[in-house]
UniProtKB/TrEMBL annotation, chains A, B:
<comment type="subunit">
    <text>Homodimer.</text>
</comment>
<keyword id="KW-0436">Ligase</keyword>
<dbReference type="Pfam" id="PF01268">
    <property type="entry name" value="FTHFS"/>
</dbReference>
<dbReference type="GO" id="GO:0035999">
    <property type="term" value="P:tetrahydrofolate interconversion"/>
</dbReference>
<keyword id="KW-0547">Nucleotide-binding</keyword>
<dbReference type="InterPro" id="IPR027417">
    <property type="entry name" value="P-loop_NTPase"/>
</dbReference>
<comment type="pathway">
    <text>One-carbon metabolism; tetrahydrofolate interconversion.</text>
</comment>
<dbReference type="InterPro" id="IPR020628">
    <property type="entry name" value="Formate_THF_ligase_CS"/>
</dbReference>
<dbReference type="GO" id="GO:0004329">
    <property type="term" value="F:formate-tetrahydrofolate ligase activity"/>
</dbReference>
<dbReference type="InterPro" id="IPR000559">
    <property type="entry name" value="Formate_THF_ligase"/>
</dbReference>
<protein>
    <recommendedName>
        <fullName>formate--tetrahydrofolate ligase</fullName>
        <ecNumber>6.3.4.3</ecNumber>
    </recommendedName>
</protein>
<dbReference type="GO" id="GO:0005524">
    <property type="term" value="F:ATP binding"/>
</dbReference>
<keyword id="KW-0067">ATP-binding</keyword>
<keyword id="KW-0554">One-carbon metabolism</keyword>
Length: 627, 627
């Protein structure tokens, strides 16, 4: 058994006990290392990071500029099989693998994960810092506010929303000339190459054209957001105050992490690029069908100012003292659900050749890994050497035909006793994920996240099925129970996979084909035999194509609980027709997102929400009840 | 002329030029000192503060605990005469005075001011960091996000709002028994002294009583908030989604700084006290008329967790390197509009005997100083030695009968040329503020904030009127043009006033009289001859008295533009009847707030909002266009 190295590092030795205590008890039992020590160990000088308290720091983009000439480390993406509603331990595996690489295999390593939404933290899900002996700490700081990135997104998103309604209101109540006299209009004129600045020199048509955006209220796709599970905001009517003169409108709130600004943050590569993307976000159309952007509203700069600190990823640490970069947010359906490009890029430079960056892709690999490859890597230009697929016996049994797994209800007997046949049947799901992930060119490793009820026969059945399906390797891990020590074999396998990776990244589809052809390429990877478009979807595809947006990659908004649109279709369904209900566009972030079925973008609170248990010990200042 | 001392301090010498450049140009021309140096100069050790970047730090409440035995410094409150819509430089004077005391008079000094709302920053008002050569820097960090306190308030406020609607929804769709089985109910049972925990042992009435809050939707006073000027949220309908089964309700958003949680933050004295106050916030009544609290909803602990970092004030610096504590928020109508008690308390210990804490009270002294004395000092137990009233020739001319002053329009000729008679006539307003402020026992100093168009004859007329009205002193200051050097005379006067203060704090009203008697005492100080209550106000006073809340202090929600309810009534109106339209309660924060006329709690964006000018220079990272 290896032991934690300590000479060259700030790593911390874990005292592991059994049975595994609660997540918060483990997190609270460890004294975090001052984050400046973690930064120092990464060779970050104080001018390249800003402290946010003692255990968080923002790593500034200037670090990336300075390291521009350095070589990258190995790039590993962690996806999963189609999960049960309980989750199969993707974050836990991401963290555990890094603890193994950093604290046991003496590698330079950085974990890249997403900031959790506070909505689920207080709602149904609890925290998202990993679990057991593989966690990011301090757990409460990770789950609450962090360094304010999501709050900045909320502020920017809602400033834009307020600007839209107020703009329509002012255009409807004021003359062309009064509107024109706002001097921002002169800038807009300049943009259109007109040098006349005296309104009297312009024809009424010219004044009208440049002073009015003429937004079609029915076309507005920009909604307000809030980082709270507030179901009563799913559909609302605004503008009912007497001063708004009857300009009422139906709209809705989404959860903040579903904001296009979150997607911009995840996909941007620099401050200049972020300014561009925020400015070109499309909020709807003019009555004549032209896209209206944030810059048309004169607000792109203000949005960038609100987001200027959020662009810097947050440095934290694992239970074993390895570094973590937390950045961007969790929504893997209407967004792409990956950590940010800038975090991954900074991490790759910081670990350098021979080091490892392990980045998590949200939801099952059909969504997370697919978007990682076709959207995120396309924009970043990075190539992963290794793609991990996390699998559990529990989820494989479900895919093999086991009874439904429901959050909050006890697991059926089938999941607690040996049933190799069920596991083997379920491996069809795993096999398709392996096949799809392998097609991108990376070496695929299956990480079997072992539970105490799993038997050797079951675990070995998965290993065999994985190798048969073309995985580079399949490894049983126990990082939840043992920390990094439980993922040492996985770490060794990942190292070998990275060292032996030779293929370039192959995308699932090129960008220069039509929107429908791209959708169909992805649908095929799900096992669909065809795609069916609603009338609305057809219209939108036509509109976006006409507006010149058809060259963007596709971000499918689909359930994570099946390859298909039907969450109940487990395993590896084939022969189904994938229904596209609607198609939307995140032009600033840079993708078109088709809606496969109904996607809720605002969760609700359950009858027994997590907040019942959460409190502060006001004498020690410690958070209690966070899970 | 004195020059900035440098031996014993981290103070910075200002190079003052004339004419005064724009605020942002001045702010950007100065390299801020690393905040750890500022902290060090205050004898704060690193365990008592958390860095938030290089120029902000949260000073932890533990500093207060450690200094419990130390003696306090002098306590100075800055109010103003009834202002014009342009503002009379209260923040600028607060900052300038501190620059004088710290950088020129070699005193230990801390400025205590409020965090600005981002709504007006992007809307109509611009930043709030002072002005000219008397500013808090970095100006952009001061005006944006700061250390996330307002974002935390937004999150906590809206989590509670979501919990209210969801609770009503679940109570309307689920059985008593199902609701009862949420185990938080067992805690609620215990609170009521019932030890039975098996639902079957309870009578249906007992189950019903403890499982249901039975909130009357029409009684809900808790609204959602957003730190954005979003007029379309002034009146909205929520719950229109199909899943909410028709449980629609009319409600509204306020701007975040108007949240009761902001008032709690400003008035709390410790973590334990904040937990209590957040838990006892009343969100409405049950159908039988009992108040329903945050703790009844099981959410007091979660709110405290969301607010646990916000309770620590943020350390920043002035242009001349003196320390500033920024805390709590700006709404001086439905809140009390003062900086926080904890910031003032920490500051008083840090400066120690002979040092000065200068704290700003929002709006005119009829609102800001009155609430400072009767609410804030009542809860803190602190006594100010000196109350400053900031006056300008401009505002006094308006009170003397000058034409209306309108934001965004050029000033009338009357304000730009000498007119001593107009100034003298306007001093009636100043005189009443002096009289009212003096009644609390502090020595009153009038700070005449000099503009370049003011003449000596005008300035001397104000000095004379101030002394005639009983001011301890009246001093002409030019800190906007000259920084601390321009407020040295004011500093000397303040020092003398503090050293010679002898009286204890005398409140305007005792707590143990009725709500109406308290309202009438305040109305009398405005010059009113009586008070008129609407039917709604009468009903609410009766309700709050019945619910046991009549012993709280009163926080009048009144226009700041007149002593009366009529913003157009300038000078020192008398003989009017003050109308009370409604009465509301912030039970957690600890006050009753009568609404005098209509108070907007959600500003709007103007036709030409500030955000048009705001952008980021993406090569330097510098914010441009913030004013």
């Amino acid at each position: 058994m290896m032991t934690s190295s300590s000479s060259s590092s700030v790593m911390r030795k874990l005292d592991v006990v059994s049975p595994v205590p609660s997540d918060i008890d483990i997190a609270n039992s460890v004294q975090p290392i001052h984050i400046s020590e973690i930064a120092n160990h990464l060779n970050l000088t104080p001018n390249h990071y800003d402290l946010y308290g003692k255990y968080k720091a923002k790593v500034l983009l200037s670090a990336l500029d300075e390291l521009q000439e350095s070589k990258d480390g190995y790039y590993v993406v962690v996806g999963g099989i189609t999960p049960t509603p309980l989750g199969e331990g993707k974050s836990t595996t991401t963290v555990g693998l890094c603890q193994a690489l950093g604290a046991f295999l003496d590698k330079k390593v950085v974990t890249c994960i997403r900031q959790p939404s506070q909505g689920p933290t207080f709602g149904i899900k609890g925290g998202a810092a990993g679990g057991g002996y593989s966690q990011v700490i301090p757990m409460d700081e990770f789950n609450l506010h962090l360094t304010g990135d999501i709050h900045a997104i909320t502020a920017a998103n809602n400033l834009l929303a307020a600007a839209i309604d107020t703009r329509i209101f002012h255009e409807s109540t004021q003359s062309d000339k009064a509107l024109f006299n706002r001097d921002v209009m002169f800038r807009r004129l300049k943009k259109f190459g007109i040098s006349k600045t005296n309104p009297d020199d312009l024809t009424p048509e010219e004044v009208n054209k440049f002073a009015r955006l003429d937004i079609d209220p029915d076309s507005i796709t920009w909604r307000r957001v809030m980082d709270i599970n507030d179901r009563f905001l799913r559909k609302i009517t605004v503008g009912q105050g007497p001063d708004e003169k009857g300009m009422v409108r139906e709209t809705a709130f989404d959860i903040s992490v579903a904001s296009e600004i979150m997607a911009v943050l995840a996909l941007t590569t620099s401050l200049t690029d972020m300014r561009e993307r925020l400015g070109k976000m499309v909020i709807g159309n003019s009555k004549s069908g032209d896209p209206v952007t944030a810059d048309d509203l004169g607000i792109g700069g203000a949005l960038t100012v609100l987001m200027k600190d959020a662009i810097h990823p947050t440095l934290m640490q694992t239970l074993e003292g390895t570094p973590v970069l937390v950045h961007a947010g969790p929504f893997a359906n209407i967004a792409h659900g990956n950590s940010s490009i800038v975090a991954d890029k900074i991490a790759l430079k910081l670990v350098g050749p021979g080091g490892f960056v392990v980045t998590e892709a949200g939801f099952g690999a059909d969504i997370g890994t697919e978007k990682f490859m076709n959207i995120k890597c396309r924009y970043s230009g990075l190539t992963p050497q290794c793609a991990i697929i996390v699998a559990t016996i529990r989820a494989l049994k479900m895919h093999g035909g086991g009874p439904a797994v429901v959050a909050g209800k006890p697991l059926d007997h089938a999941y607690l006793t040996e049933n190799v046949a069920l596991v083997e049947a379920g491996c069809a799901n795993l096999a398709r994920h392996i096949l799809n992930s392998k097609a991108y060119g990376a070496n695929v490793i299956v990480a079997i996240n072992k539970f105490s009820t799993d038997t050797d026969a079951e675990l070995n059945a998965v290993k065999k099925a994985a190798l048969d399906a073309g995985a580079y390797d399949a490894v049983i891990c126990s990082h939840h129970a043992h920390g990094g020590r439980g993922a040492v074999d996985l770490g060794i396998a990942v190292q070998k996979a990275c060292e032996n990776a030779t293929q370039p990244l192959k995308f699932l589809y090129p960008l220069d084909i039509g929107i429908k052809e791209k959708i169909e390429a992805i649908a095929k990877s799900y096992g669909a035999s065809g795609v069916e478009y609603s009338e609305q979807a057809e219209k939108k595809i036509e509109l976006y194509t006409k507006q010149g947006f058809s060259g963007l990659p596709i971000c499918m908004a689909k359930t994570q609980y099946s390859f298909s649109d039907n969450a109940a279709a487990k395993g590896a369904p084939t022969g189904f027709i994938l229904p596209i209900r609607d198609v939307r566009a995140s032009i600033g972030a840079g993708f078109i997102y088709p809606l496969v079925g109904t996607m809720s973008t605002m969760p609700g609170l359950p009858t027994r929400p997590c907040f019942y248990d959460i409190d502060l010990d006001t004498t020690t200042g410690q958070v209690i009840g966070l899970s």
